[in-house]
Design brief:
Blueprint lengths: L2 H16 L1 H6 L2 H20 L2 H7 L2 E8 L4 E7 L1 H24 L3 H23 L3 H19 L7 H36 L8 H5 L10 H15 L8 H4 L5 H7 L4 H16 L3 H22 L5 H20 L7 H29 L10 H4 L1 H15 L5 H13 L5 H27 L19 H12 L4 H10 L16 H18 L1 H4 L9 H20 L6 H19 L2 H6 L1 H8 L6 H22 L3 H21 L3 H23 L3 H12 L4 H31 L8 H12 L4 H9 L1 H29 L12 H7 L2 H23 L8 H19 L1 H7 L5 H21 L22 H24 L2 H8 L8 H5 L1
Antiparallel strand pairs: 1-2
Helix pairs in contact: 1-3, 1-6, 3-5, 5-6, 5-12, 5-16, 5-21, 6-7, 7-8, 8-10, 10-13, 10-14, 12-16, 13-15, 14-15, 14-20, 15-16, 15-20, 16-18, 16-19, 16-21, 18-20, 18-21, 19-20, 19-23, 20-23, 26-33, 29-30, 30-31, 31-39, 34-35, 35-36, 36-41, 36-42, 38-39, 39-40, 39-42, 41-42
Length: 962
Amino acid sequence: MDLLILNAVPFGMALLLAVPWTANWISKTAQTWLSTGIMALLFVILLGYFPYIEDNGVVTRSLEWTPALGLAVSFYLDGLSLLFALVVTGVGATIFLYSGNYFEDLGEQTRFNTYLAAFSGAMLGVVLSGNLITLFIMWELTSITSFLLIGFKGNKSESARYGALQALIITGGGGLALLVGLLLLAFATGGVHGTGAFTTDIAAILGTKDLVNHDWYNVFTLLILIGAFTKSAQWPFHFWLPGAMEAPTPASAFLHSATMVKAGVYLLARFYPVLGDSNLWSSSLLGIGLLTMTMGAILSVKQRDLKALLAYSTVSKLGALVALIGLAEYLGIKAAYIGIIAHACYKAALFLTVGTIDHGIGTRIIDNLGGVARLMPITAGIAIVSALSMAGVPFFFGFVAKETLIAAMMDAPTQWLAVGSVAISATFTAAAAYIIIWDVFFRQPKQDVYIHHTLPRAIDYGPGLLAIGSVIFGLLLQPVFIPFLEATLPKPFKLELFPGLITEFYISMGAILAGLVLFGMRRWWLRLPDLPIQGTRIYQSLLQAVEWSGDQILRSQGGKVRYYLISILGVIAVFVLGSGLLTDLATGEDLLSHLTEIDFTEETPLLELMLLVIVIGSALGSIIVRRHVLAVLALGVMGYGVAGIFLIRHAIDVAFVQFLVETLVTILIIIILSRTSTKQRQDVMTRLWVGKTRVSARFGFWRDILISTAIGAIVFVFAAIALVNRPERDTIAAWHVENAEEQVGATDIVAAILTDFRGMDTFIEIMVFAVSALGILALLSINRQEQRAKTGDKRATIEIQEAIQISTPFTRTLAIIILPIALLIAVAHTVYGSYAPGDGFTAGVIAGLAVALWYIVFGYNQVRARLWWLHPIRFLTAGLALTMLNAAAPVIFGDGFMALTKLEELSFAGITPSSTLVFEIGIALTVFGAVGVLLESIAHPQDVERLQGADITFVDQESNNR
């Protein structure tokens, strides 16, 4: 299977489960076995790549994304990638199998599996990425999907929300550091190659020598280490992992034992060949790793929550893996690889058995458990086997991992410190294993323990398979693991199930016995205080500092726009005055020369001058007029005047958009005003024009004049500076005219720019537009919920009579006629956008204006009843999905991202079907959906109903204003 398809399969599964009708069609059992089967199939397919890796060392796949920038979506599969990919798919299959029996509600299972499938795809993307950009995108996607999984119960649990947010902040912050580090690494690689180019290809980076001697080495290495440490829960960032234990148990087993927390380990192992030969690398990884390993093991035995115990022991193991990668000359890589597999087997199985206990008995608190073995014998057997492997008891696979760990640390620069740390952590880890085995399964319980909820037998299948791995993998060293490691490691090694009576074995056995002694003394040391080196305090201090800074900033954010304008434009003005740009402008010669070139006797400048007068007059009118509706109309006329200037300047598309946007904004503001009581508006006018006292009124009046004059002067200065300092250069308009039709197939230059030459800008802009509309919907929804508990203002008055006068037989008939005509015009604009003025954006706005007229004439309830097909969210979603699919489809067929595709053989009616046309359709649907969302939010009857609940007294607003 192609690596691209292999990586896309989990995302496809997530998309399949996310579609409501598909999810409802698939039964709970079918969903369980389908998801399990898909992950198992991917595991088998990945195993099939091993012969290629053994012969060739690496398998690559690349698809051009942005050829002009040298960016591509590439995949890189070598022994390291294969190891992690097998862990992701193998453990993932058991997790999906377990979750199908863990969740009873089909809806919960579907939602969980959707998130889990998306996370699996992101994790596969991290380990298979052959490009730094792809690697970072997938890296961040693991943080986002893990946030959803950790906060899965967020609607019921505050601790789940807190844990999810904490994990996102820590890993997201580390991701920002990683991004900068990867970019610097890409530039440094280009510098070493002598090209100076931006090199993101991982194969090229791994083939680069002397990166450790680069001037930027310390900077980008430290940034990459921060990204890895935050992801893999290294001190002082370790605390997010125990805090994330509010996630459902299957998520904890997958994310926090086998996959996500190993992403940082993968990153370190990936760049080890080119970054690992330095004191900075060795000292950082060895020091932080040993500290994290020891601290995590000590903290684990003090936990009384089973998941917290497993979480801290996971932190300890992650520290060991990081320390191993810190050893020079590949001394620790063998032990790291074995440790990754062993830990995935026993820790995932332990997490799942804890979930079974919690689900069946109703608690996972150690003090409330005991004698569970007689209630859940199969679960107990799985947990005992896995715990013994975690303790490193011979001859489980965990024993092999511990032996190789000790052997590697025997060659560490600070042998006594490294081996001593391993011995201490192994002792506490063994004690933690004994606590699990005895206190949970065999100890006499302090209170009655019984099964509250009967669980299906199949719930033990997944952890059982993992426990079997802990038993038999040690027997498969010669036929399976040694050939795999030989194809991965660049130097010879030795690997045995039982190395003999050597130093490493004695240290291992000593730790097991010492752990038993420590376990017997647990009543004494459980009362000891926690370690003082807790990163939680640092995190909370930083949060408090951020909150304090936010409070200080909010003091300057009082909600008055005039102050915002003063702050923004005032700072810019200071920079302009201090930069010396006003030197040439002060003479006035260049500015006067530009002004004298204008011939006011010509017709065009005269029309522009008249429109400018209209614009200025309308702006003044919007200030002077005290009726809000007239002020809004004056603002609309001002916008129309600007559009007229665009039209005179032959910018037809820009003028058309300006006309439509001004119309839409005017309608939206009028609808908002109709939802605002007259009293509220009168209070605003009183504060603006009258003030609390005569002195404050005069001060406010002159203050506003001063602010307005200053802003106008600043804008004039900016415009004058731009005019005087405009460089003399050839215009690029000629190039667009010559190439638009040939390269894009569009005779409309603006359409060619928006959909192709600057298509990525448009792609991002419509996403921003859609997100803004959804944000407004969310904010207004919150406001409506808050207002439900409030009583109406008894003094409020609303202008219902004006609304009634709008809805007449004539206006209703007009609205009915206009809607289909507007939709036809919208279709024409979309289809012929490449050949005539108009495009997908104008099409969406035109259709939205017709719907807006319906809201004004018929009202919210009638619109919802008559226009049954109007579901703005669906239109918006369909538009975004179509746009994304249209942009990504060329990549699948080996072309660049958003590459132009034309089907000239299907031309009809002067239209050539192309990806540009699909893009226009997506834009039209997105804009129409976004406008619909805005209208539906603003025109919602909740606000009107709230006002109608008050005593209504109609007043003559003009007389009040007088």
